[in-house]
Design a protein that fits this description.
- It is found in: Cytoplasm.
- α2 packs antiparallel against α3.
- Strands 3, 4, 6, 7, 9, 10, 12, 15, 16 and 17 form a ten-stranded mixed beta sheet that branches. A seven-stranded mixed beta sheet has the order 2-1-5-8-11-13-14, with no helix packed on it.
- It has 278 residues and is mainly β.
Amino acid sequence: MTQVATILPAHSAVPPRAAGTVSLSTKQLGNRTVLNKFRQSGSFKCLFPRTTTPELDAVLLNSAGGVTGGDSFRFSCKAAKGTALTLTTQACERAYKAPPKEWGQVTNHLTLEAGARLNWLPQETILYNGSALDRRLRIDLSPDADMLMVEPLVFGRVAMGETLTEIRLRDQIEIWREGTPVFLDAIRFAGDWHTHLAKRHIANGAGAMALIVLMSSSAEGHLEPVRELLPDAAGATLTRNDLLVIRILAGDSFALRRKLMPVLRRLNNDTLPRCWML
């Protein structure tokens, strides 16, 4: 019996898509923070470096090498009562060129119970020309939990002379305390990002930016020392006594990191994940 295989033309083939999920929770063991539950699947992994401190460090890894249209990555974690957790990424994330009408989706949800401390310190996300990134971060805090987060964005590969003349970006950050929103930040853009950022009243040609948020009873005490560390193209403000918001613009990713690191050290007891070292 002769079997005939149907061979589809190359243009009709569906390109492969990357997907992955990581979820974890912590618990206390003596005076240390340790894993309680952990699950990972697909192209999303999590590593746990050995440390000599009571806190738990976790490093997220996208084994697909980046995010493009049709990809989906989800992360969730719960920091239990009294635990301390630092989350970072092994390397910079990359948002690659995406097909029309398709988006790369990244969803992160962090939950902090009473007395927990969580540091969300991912390295830079680099936007490539033609990219389409839909990224969402939600943080839910109990009344006396502390949180430090940073989200750095880099606009193209400066060393290769890349400019972002066509991108799609949806980026949303929500911070909730006891079910009430205390900080909401969102970007919605489609088109010539380079020309948009070149406007003096927007970014004056900056090639990178970062948002830092500290929610802690100590936030007010950090305001003036942090302002002394900031360059001219940056600002810090208290939106409430326990909420410090900082924004920084820089010419490129290297300049941004040099400006970020002293601020993050100041807000995190003079420590940073090893992945952040220049």
